[in-house]
Amino acid sequence: MPLDLSSLASVRRFVARFLALGLPLNLLINNAGKFADRFALSDDGVEMTFATNYLGHFLLTKLLMEKMAETAAATDVEGRIVNVSSTIHSWFAGDDAVGYIDAVTRRKIPYDPTRAYALSKLANVLHTRALADRLKEMKANVTANCVHPGIVRTRLIRERDGLVTNTVFFLASKLLKTIPQAAATTCYVAVHPAVAGVSGKYFADCNEASPSRLGSNADEAAKLWRFSDEVAAEEKEESVHAGSFRLQVQSSNADRHFLLTKLLMEKMAETAAATDVEGRIVNVSSTIHSWFAGDDAVGYIDAVTRRKIPYDPTRAYALSKLANVLHTRALADRLKEMKANVTANCVHPGIVRTRLIRERDGLVTNTVFFLASKLLKTIPQAAATTCYVAVHPAVAGVSGKYFADCNEASPSRLGSNADEAAKLWRFSDEVAAEEKEESVHAGSFRLQVQSSNADRGLAFA
Fold it and tell me: What does the record give under GO molecular function (predicted)?
């Protein structure tokens, strides 16, 4: 089964597929490694080295903890989790791991690839400590430990191959371990009887060792866990029940809604025909879609992507919300052509303060929200229109429309333009064609309602 640990969505897909197999799980070794020579962000907007070496492991482990506890209880065999770190974790200079990753991700400080790698390995150590505490609280017969495998030349630093790297490894050749030798400590901690019951520890050369001062800090471990939990929770997977069907809804980035919907259209049409229950697709937009100035949405996104014009974050956000409106119109037309018993509508949830604008928190933002406080909706209030359009009988048969405050409303002039909607569909189809389609089968799974919410919260509108 494919697994890309730099992507939280990939981790969730992997776990879902693994759990569906009904297999036991006694041993988990977290050993993905990347050294990013240049600054890059993951699909989830996290610095790439940290995302690959730590955050993906954090989510993978969290989602599999219960399964490991169940297996250990059922088999009476201790489960073991092994995080592969490095002595390089001690190279991280500073007392605030979370503050550093936040600052480097937001480009507030220069990117240092070695420091970023050291931080990711420190995160493995801190994760081990916090994880061991949680397993103990669960009374699970599962341990978690961390290892330094030793100095070994692998493909990890392939981006830095060259004269200097080759010379350094030649001079250090007497200190290097072979790959089997480097695997020895990992295997020892994973299976040796001498390590039974030992948890939350750091090992090197098949012996317990001491991590760095920061790596031993319980408060920093707890702080990193809370931070990681918050970041990983932004990819929310919710179970939605309505009658006899169960829908897994996964919030994702805005640029995936078009493709997600396109790949699920046929399934929704089949389900509606088989159950004689209308399927509904709801795109969450915003009144801010009307702030987009111009008559060429596709031309703008092409120009800003190619850096032909300066980036304006507000205009880019307005365009994304306009795209939701135009997508709804074109989608409704296609569903009608398919003669599918499925509708597509778009909603403005209202003005609500969520974590969407967290990067702009500060005096100005706080002042604006204070002055606008009487206009704000609570998150449940903001969800009302989405829920109304998704399930209310009064909206049966209605498609291609824009709703606000649980009533049909008028989108902007450009948002009502059928030609622009068709143009955007063709452009999106061309871009999305570069992504390979996968067929995912899940037994008798049925899909009845799909809610596409671009903002991973409701919306700031």
Answer: oxidoreductase activity
Which of 297, 411, 292, 301 lies closest to 345 in space, CA to CA? 411
Structure tokens at 341: 């018993």
Distance separating alpha carbons of residues 114 and 110, to the nearest angstrom: 12
Average pLDDT, the chain: 82
User: Which whole-number Å values give the CA distances from 282 to 36, 63, 288, 324, 332, in the listed order?
Assistant: 38, 28, 17, 10, 11
pTM, full prediction: 0.52
Report the CATH fold assignment for 237-453.
Answer: Rossmann fold (3.40.50)
pLDDT value at position 102?
Answer: 86
CA–CA dist 5, 14 (Å, integer): 10
Fold agreement between 8-232 and 237-453:
yes
Strand-pairing partners, residue 347, are 284, 403
CA distances from residue 337 to 42, 258, 332, 429 in whole angstroms, order as listed: 38, 18, 9, 17
Share of the chain above pLDDT 90, in %: 56
The domain ranges of the chain are 8-232, 237-453
Question: Could you list the active site residues?
Answer: 111
The predicted structure's pLDDT at residue 175: 56
Q: Which CATH architecture describes the domain 8-232?
A: 3-Layer(aba) Sandwich (3.40)
